[in-house]
Each structure stands twice: as C-alpha cells, then as structure tokens.
C-alpha cells in the first residue's frame, strides 16, 4: 500500500490538480470525485487535494472554471437539442420543464459540492489540529532540551574553572617543592673525618 504524502506541492502537481478538476466540472462531476482521482494519482488524501485547490490553485484558474461551466451547460443544451422536437402545442411547457430539470440538477450538484467542501474542511481542520498539537509538544521538548543544555553548559564552565584552579595549586606546590629541594641541597656540606671518610654536616 502506498503511503500518504505530506510534502510540498510542485507546479506539475498543481497543474494536474487543476486539469482533473476542470475536466470533472466540464463533465458535470463533483469536485469530491476529482479530489479522489488526484489523490490516487499523487498518493495524497482527498482532503489535502481539496485544501490545496480551495486555498491556492482555484484562485489561479477562475477563468478556466467559468469556461468549464459554460462548456458543461453547452453540452447539456446540445444533448437536449438532439432529442425529438416537441409538438408546437407543448413546446413552451417542455422548455420550461427542461429549464426546471436543469436548475434542479445544478442545485443538487451545488449542494453535493457544498457537502464535499464541508467534509474536506472538516478533515483539514482535524489534520490541522493534530499538527498544532504536535508542534506544541515539539516546542515543549525543545524548551526542555534548551534548559538542560544551559544547565550542563553552566556545570561545564564551573568544572573548567575548578580544573584551572587545581592546576594552579599543583603548579605552586611543584615550585615550592623544587625550591625546598634546592634549599636543602644548598644547606648540606661534607667534611672528612679522621679515618678519611666523608661525613654530611648540616648548617
């Protein structure tokens, strides 16, 4: 099973999204079906496709949407004109009936589209809430790590200062020992006893 993508949209994907939706509009289909088709082709959720369309892509294809709607209406008119011509006596009634049926179809299509958009917005809101919660948790973890880092850095500086002080004390002790040894060596003298042996004499 292909995993759902959550990466950024490319220009080619936006173009594919627009082409599929305009095709569905021309054919009288719903945008929900278009979102599902694009989602399958791009391995994205229909909700993600719907949000991308409504928040960004649709604004760039307003004229295309209008042309697609006109094409759909013209197609319906051509289909209706290919049917048998009514008798002169009932022509007016049939025209009124066709217009009523067309308006009802448009109305139901519009309602269906509103329902699809509402579901898409609900799904997007749910995904957005989950992302906000995840970001909040990550921020809390980041703050905790930052505090821990500052604490460890402070301890490191304290240890570094103690280490330098210890080195200073050790250096002073070493110098004192060298000085004492030097003084001791200076204070020692030797003399020869009656038997010809050297004997150390302290000052």
Observed structural traits:
single chain; 203 residues; mainly alpha; 2 domains; two-stranded antiparallel ribbon; 2 strands; Homeodomain-like_sf; Myb_dom
Summarize the structure.
The protein is mostly helical and 203 residues long. It is built from five helices and two strands, in the order αααααββ.
Number of helices: 5
Helix content: over 70%
Rg from C-alpha positions?
45 Å
Largest sheet: 2 strands, antiparallel
Overall pLDDT score: 79
Which term fits the overall shape? rod-shaped
- Spatial order of strands in the largest sheet: 1-2
Low-confidence stretches: 84-91
Q: How many structural domains in the coordinates? A: 2
Element-level helix/strand string: HHHHHEE
Strand content: under 5%
How many β-strand stretches? 2
How many angstroms does the end-to-end distance come to?
Answer: 98 Å
Secondary structure category: mainly alpha
Domain HTH myb-type: 1-61
Region (Disordered): 72-93
Coiled coil: 114-176
Keywords: Coiled coil
């Amino acid at each position: 099973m292909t995993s759902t993508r959550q990466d950024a949209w490319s220009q080619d994907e936006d173009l594919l999204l627009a082409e599929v939706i305009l095709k569905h509009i021309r054919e009288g289909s719903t945008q929900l079906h278009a979102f599902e088709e694009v989602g399958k082709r791009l391995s994205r959720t229909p909700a993600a496709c719907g949000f991308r369309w409504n928040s960004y892509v649709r604004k760039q294809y307003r004229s295309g949407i209008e042309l697609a709607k006109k094409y759909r209406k013209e197609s319906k008119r051509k289909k209706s004109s290919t049917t048998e011509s009514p008798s002169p006596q009932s022509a007016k009634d049939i025209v009124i009936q066709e217009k009523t049926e067309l308006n009802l179809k448009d109305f139901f299509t519009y309602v269906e589209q509103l329902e699809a958009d509402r579901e898409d917005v609900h799904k997007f809101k749910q995904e957005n809430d989950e992302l906000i919660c995840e970001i909040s948790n990550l921020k809390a973890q980041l703050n905790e790590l930052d505090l821990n880092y500052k604490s460890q850095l402070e301890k490191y500086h304290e240890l570094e200062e103690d280490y330098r002080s210890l080195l200073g004390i050790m250096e002073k002790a070493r110098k004192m020992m060298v000085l004492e040894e030097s003084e001791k060596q200076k204070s020692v003298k030797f003399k020869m006893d009656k038997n010809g042996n050297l004997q150390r004499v302290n000052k």
